[in-house]
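Our preliminary data section would be incomplete without showing what the modeling component actually yields. Below, a chain of 45 amino acids is followed by its predicted structure, encoded as tokens that our downstream tools consume directly.
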Amino acid sequence: MASYYTLDVDDLVNVNAAWTYRHPYPWIRKIADHVAFWRGVEIVP
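Predicted structure:
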């Protein structure tokens, strides 16, 4: 089951824009504790 996050940046709210699998199935355990983004999220340094 995924955990979803709402991002709030500069008064703009992006519901469910990030998610993670804290306890993934054993065959995909490499993704544990990684966060994925979508819905227009851009990560810049």
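The chain is about 0% helix and 40% strand. The two ends are 30 Å apart (CA to CA). Preliminary results of this kind motivate Aim 1 of the renewal.
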